[in-house]
Write a structure and sequence with these properties.
The protein is an alpha/beta fold and 307 residues long. It has one domain: TIM Barrel (Alpha-Beta Barrel). The protein contains eleven helices and 16 strands. The strands form four sheets. Strands 3-4-7-8-9-10-15-16 form an eight-stranded parallel β-barrel, surrounded by seven helices. The protein has a four-stranded antiparallel beta sheet with strand order 5-6-14-11, with no helix packed on it. Strand 9, helix 6 and strand 10 form a beta-alpha-beta unit. Helix 1 runs parallel beside helix 2 (78-92), helix 6 (176-185) packs across helix 7 (224-235) and helix 8 (251-259) crosses helix 10 (278-293). It is globular.
Length: 307
């Protein structure tokens, strides 16, 4: 039987599948359900310094080839986020599944502030979301847009916490590998790639955008090839673990992401479609693929498409 054990920084995961931020990550019980169903590590929904209501409905639509969403970073604020982390960790402890906290902020200094607060909840990793594509009207251009701004946020977070961090990058940039190099030089311990791709869905008969925010982030199978390309570009330029995220919905998709250089695999839209049980299904599919192709473990498969 192939070995799915994954070493990710100081964490030993039973398998490489990660519940991505924003999907079933809003309550301890839902997060724990994903762990119970086979996720190797789970991520809470992104949290800011203060509470945020997000955008008005409709905020998420299945358009046939994936999901487009403009949730708008709805969250209860960092202080309440600490309590949610503590409650979630208590549920995860018997399962031995690590917990990732996700953070965002409108300014560099507030990234440091929210990182310091959320660290009180003692997550195993902090994911620094600098790439949400659907709050530009409120926050301006995402910090993932340039190496300089991405590095500035990374430095602020590293100064505020001793917990390892993974910086979540955007796909819609001229050179994602250059930005990856900048955040790693600034202290990032890992990288999450990618966030959703900006998009717009129009109802031609109504003559208007479907989402209340007009634009949103595209996820699901439609962006898998973009995610694979970005992960491969990053893997050839930096030597830190990568959580490859985007369009993975089967065990073979997961194998492709590992072959592109990812150490772990973020699962989001597939959970939207199939529920928490998708983790066990994809785990079994990946095991079957590895046995068929005679890969004894993930290390033997990692990065083979780059050689």
């Amino acid at each position: 039987m192939p070995d799915l054990t994954t070493q990710f920084l100081n964490l030993t995961l039973s398998n490489p599948f990660v519940l991505a931020s924003g999907i079933l990550g809003s309550s301890p019980e839902l997060i724990a359900r994903c762990a119970q169903n086979g996720a190797g590590v789970v991520t809470c929904k992104s949290c800011g310094v203060t509470a945020r209501e997000g955008h008005a409905n409709p905020v998420a639509v299945d358009w046939g080839h994936g999901v487009i969403n403009a949730i708008g970073l709805t969250n209860p604020g960092a202080d309440e986020g600490v309590h949610l982390l503590q409650q979630t960790k208590a549920l995860l402890a018997p399962l031995g599944v690590p917990l990732i906290a996700s953070i965002f902020a409108p300014t560099v200094s507030q990234y440091g502030e929210v990182a310091a607060i959320i660290s009180q909840g003692e997550p195993d990793l902090i994911e620094v979301n600098i790439s949400c594509p659907n709050v530009a009207d409120e926050f301006g251009t995402p910090f993932a847009g340039t190496p300089e701004s991405a590095a500035a946020v990374t430095e602020a977070v590293k100064k505020a916490t001793t917990i390892p961090i993974s910086v979540k990058l955007a796909p819609n940039v001229p050179n994602i590998a250059c930005i990856a190099e900048a955040v790693v030089s600034a202290g990032a311990d890992a990288i999450t790639a990618i966030n959703t791709m900006p998009g717009m869905l129009i109802d031609a008969r109504a003559g208007r955008a479907v989402l209340s925010n007009r634009t949103g982030g595209l996820s699901g199978s439609a962006i898998k090839l973009i995610a694979l390309h970005c992960v491969a570009e990053i893997a050839t330029r930096v030597n830190v673990p990568i959580i490859g995220t985007g369009g993975v919905s089967s065990g073979e998709d997961a194998a492709e992401m590992i072959m592109a250089g990812a150490s772990a695999i973020g699962i989001g839209t597939a959970v939207w479609y199939h529920g928490a049980a998708v983790f066990a299904r994809m785990r079994d599919e990946l095991l079957g693929f590895m046995a068929e192709q005679r890969y004894p473990d993930l290390a033997a498969m990692r990065g083979v498409a780059l050689r």
